[in-house]
Amino acid sequence: MINVDLKYMQSFVEEDNLKQLEEKIITAHKDLIARVGKGSDFLGWLDLPDTIGDSLDEINTVAQLLKKVDVLLVIGIGGSYLGAKAALEALNPYFNRKGPEIIFVGHHISSAYMLELKRYLENKTFAINVISKSGTTTEPAIAFRVFKEMLESKVGKAASKDLIVATTDENKGALRHLVNEEDYQSFVIPDNVGGRYSIFTAVGLLPIAVSGIDINAMIEGAKEAKETFSELSLDNPVYKYVAARNHLYNTGKKIEMFIHYDPKIQYLAEWWKQLFGESEGKDGKGLFVASAGFTTDLHSLGQYIQDGERHLFETVLNIKTPTEDFTIEKNEDDLDGLNYLDGYSVDEVNKQAMLGTLLAHNDGGVPNIVIEIEKMNEKQFGELIYFYELSCALSGYVLGVNPFDQPGVEAYKKNMFALLEKPGFEEETKAIKKRIK
Q1: Which of 83, 158, 414, 436 has its CA 20 to 30 A from that of 245?
Q2: Taking the CA atoms of the chain, what radius of gyration do you get in angstroms?
C-alpha cells in the first residue's frame, strides 16, 4: 500500500487549503471515469490492469524465445523505452543479471553510440524488439534500419525474421506494413493508450519479461492499485499527492523534484519526468519536473536546494525496506572515525540521511511530500506506476490542460525535417534557411 505523508510540508500549507481542492479532484476523477474530459480518446490505460491479462501468456511465451540470444536490442524513444528501462533498473540486481543483456537504442541520435554498439554485437547473437506506432519516428527508425541490416547480414534475411519482434499500430503505419510484408512476430500498441502510459502493454511488458521480471505480479499490483485508488475522497493517497502538488504550484512553487535514495530508482525518475512533463507542460502552465538521487546529489545540487531561490519543492520516494542490507562493524584503528556506526545497518544510515535532509530542507524553506512504499518488488512497482499515472491524469485536469497530448513535441521535428530538406517540407526549408543565414 502506498502512503503519502504530508507532515514535511505542514508549515507551508493549511489543511483547509488542500480541502479546497478536493471537489476539483473529485470532478476530475468523475470526468476521467466517465470518459468526458480532455483527451478522453486516450484513456485505455485506465483499464489495462484488468484487460491486459489475456495477453500476458503470449508476451511471456515470446519472452522465453527471446531469452535464447546474448543481447536483446530494444528500439524505441520516450514512452517506448522509459517504462521498461525503469522496471529493469528498479527490479533487477545491480550486477550479474540473468538472461540476455538488454540494450536500448533509438532513444537518441548518437553516431558514436550506434557504431560502438555495432562493434559490441559483432561476436554476439542478438534479437530486436522495435517499438513504434508509426515506424517513421526519426530516432528509432534510424536505429531499426541500421540494426535490422546488421542482423540480416549476420544470420540471413530468412532467419532474421524469427529474431525481430515489432510492437506497433494494429492496422496502419510503416512498421505495420513491414510486419505484414515480412511476417514478423508483432504486438499491438492500443490506439487509446499514449506512449507515456503504455508500460502495461507489450511496449513495456515484453522487454521486462525477457529480463526475468514477473510481469503477472506487476499487473496484479496495478490491478489492486486501480481498486484502492478509486475512492472519491482526500483520504485517497492519489488525491493527497494531487492536492499537495497543485496547491504548492498555485502558491508559487514552479519546480517539483523527484528525490530518491537508491540508484536503482534513477530511471523510474526519468519515466516520471516524461509522464508529468509531457502531460502538464502546455498552454503556458505546469510544474517543471526534475529529479535527483540522494545522497549523491546532495554533494552537487544540495547547496542550491538548501539556499537557492525558493521556487521548488521535493517529492521523496521512500522505500521502507531495502532488497538487501548489511551491518557496519567497528574497526580497531577507527582511522575514518566511523566506529560510532557500529551495529547500524547501511540502510539505517541512509534513512537517517533522508530524515536529516527532510528537516534541513524544510528549515531552508523547501516543502517535501513523501511517498512511501514497503519495498521495491514487482507487485509494488506495478502499484506505484498506476499511482503516478492516475495522479498525473487528475493533476492535469485540475490544472486545466489535456494531459494526454503533446503538441509541443512536434516543433523541433518540423525544424529538423526542414533543415534536412525532407520531401514535403520545401517551404519550411526555404523559411528556416533564411533564419540561420
Answers
A1: 83
A2: 23
What is the signed CA dihedral for 93, 94, 96, 99, rounded to 10 degrees? 60
- Determine whether 413 is an active site residue: yes
Q: Are 84 and 140 in contact (CB under 8 A)?
A: no
Whole-angstrom Cα distance, residue 14 to residue 52? 41
Q: Where in the chain is the domain with CATH 3.40.50.10490?
A: 3-36+219-403, 68-211
Residue 204 has which C-alpha cell?
513495456
C-alpha angle 354-9-305 in degrees, rounded to nearest 5? 55
Closest CA to 361 of 11, 1, 2, 14: 11
Q: For the chain, how many helices (H) and strands (E)?
A: 17, 10
**How far is 382 from 373, CA to CA, in rounded Å?**
12
Tell me, what amino acid is at 20? Answer: Q
d(CA 162, CA 153) in angstroms, rounded, equals: 14
Segment (H or E) for 386: helix 378-399
User: Tens digits of per-residue pLDDT, 25-38?
Assistant: 999 999 999 999 99
Catalytic residue among 254, 413, 430, 433: 413
Residue 320 pLDDT > 90, yes or no? Answer: yes
First to last CA, the chain: 58
What is the pLDDT averaged over residues 96-113?
94
Return the number of other C-beta atoms located less than 10 Å from residue 363's C-beta.
10
In this structure, CATH architecture of domain 3-36+219-403: 3-Layer(aba) Sandwich (3.40)
Active site residue 278: yes
| Catalytic-labelled residue, pool 98, 122, 181, 299 | 299
Of the residues 256, 278, 383, 389, only one is catalytic, namely 278
Q: Identify the CATH assignment for 68-211 out of 3.20.20.70, 3.40.50.10490, 3.30.200.20, 3.30.70.20.
A: 3.40.50.10490
Q: Which pLDDT score, from 0 to 100, does residue 14 have?
A: 80
Has this prediction a pTM greater than 0.85?
Answer: yes
Q: Which set of grid coordinates corresponds to residue 336?
A: 575514518
- Low-confidence winner among 83-92, 182-191, 314-323, 425-434 (lowest mean pLDDT): 425-434
367 touches 316 (CB < 8 A) = no
Q: Which three cell numbers stand for residue 326?
A: 548489511
